[in-house]
Write a structure and sequence with these properties.
With 299 residues, the protein is mainly alpha-helical. The chain folds into 2 domains: 213 residues, Alpha-lytic protease prodomain-like, CATH 1.20.1510; 69 residues, Alpha-Beta Plaits (2-Layer Sandwich). 70% of the residues lie in helices and 9% in strands. The chain is built from 8 helices and 3 strands. It has a 3-stranded mixed sheet, covered by helices on one side. Strand 2, helix 8 and strand 3 form a beta-alpha-beta unit. The relative contact order is 0.12. The N terminus is likely disordered.
């Protein structure tokens, strides 16, 4: 397949997959936002911190999912003379913001839980259980929709982690309500909230570190520069590869640039195609800029 046709096919496939991701995130946002209102009412009615904490989490999750959805919409826009790579990087920025938001949510839940442990309040276990079970159903539906979209996209993974945090929060609320109904021991509510916040922090760190890696234009995770140089230098006709740089616009769009010195008599176009083939075959980098350098006697 000619290179131009290959890139057009790859772009169409990525575009279609982006539509699927956008639809999945949009559905999850609607489910999350709709139930959030019911959970706020349930938390105020029952006095449950677990429900209120989860409702606060769902509020920020709704904003995060809406931001993710907007990122996919914005990524549809074509490149222009100022943004020659287009708007795909906005989805990585959205993932980074969502990851930072998870840190804030976890800290808020932990602080509120400590205050509740110091000053316990009455919690109505029955209504709390009913609202938490309904929330579990909504979160499972949202998680299923996002999970079907796949985890190749960092923005989708960030959105999925927000929903997973909600799901864990509702599970914690269900367990807390059952303990309260059986024993009347209300401290279980803030204790489980703290455990949920720890799980959220773990997920948040993963999203923030991965999105920061892309934003800082580090090499893709599976790209080893030393290995790449060894394989590129082994291409017939190539004397030495230097100034090799690899980075990602998004996780799905890795790129590379390099300069290659050729051996005397080597054909530049043949070497260029061979170098690009190595990057595509061995490292999944379809978009590479290769500059061929010749010695003065070969110029």
């Amino acid at each position: 397949m000619p290179e131009r046709q290959f890139h057009d096919h790859d772009h169409r496939a990525a575009h279609a997959h982006g539509h699927a991701n956008e639809r999945a995130v949009g559905i999850a946002a609607l489910l999350t936002g709709g139930f959030m209102l019911a959970e706020v009412a349930g938390g105020l009615l029952t006095g449950s911190l677990a429900l209120l904490a989860d409702a606060g989490h769902m509020l920020t999750d709704f904003a995060a999912l809406a931001l993710s959805w907007f990122a996919f919409r914005l990524a549809r826009r074509p490149a222009d003379w100022q943004r020659t790579y287009g708007f795909d990087r906005f989805s990585i920025l959205a993932a980074f913001v969502n990851g930072v938001a998870l840190f804030v949510i976890a800290a808020w839940i932990a602080v509120e839980a400590i205050l509740r442990l110091r000053d316990p309040v009455e919690v109505l276990g029955g209504p709390m259980l009913a609202v938490a079970i309904l929330g579990l159903v909504v979160n499972i539906a949202s998680f299923w929709v996002l999970h079907r979209a796949g985890d190749e996209n960092l923005n989708v993974r960030a959105a999925t982690l927000h929903v997973l945090g909600d799901l864990l929060g509702t599970v914690g609320a269900i367990v807390a309500s059952l303990v309260i109904l059986q024993t009347g021991w209300t401290p279980i509510d803030p204790i489980l909230s703290i455990l949920v916040s720890i799980l959220i922090l773990r997920a948040a760190w993963r999203v923030v570190s991965e999105s920061a890696r892309v934003l800082l234009e580090a090499a893709p995770p599976d790209f080893d520069t030393q290995v790449a140089l060894a394989r590129l230098n082994a291409v017939p006709g190539v004397a030495r590869v230097h100034h090799l740089h690899a980075w990602s616009i998004t996780e799905e769009r890795p790129m590379a640039t390099l300069e290659a010195d050729l051996l005397p008599g080597a054909d530049g176009e043949t070497a260029r195609r061979a170098l690009k083939e190595v990057l595509a075959r061995d490292f999944g980098i379809e978009h590479a800029t290769v500059e061929i350098c010749r010695s003065p006697q070969d110029a």
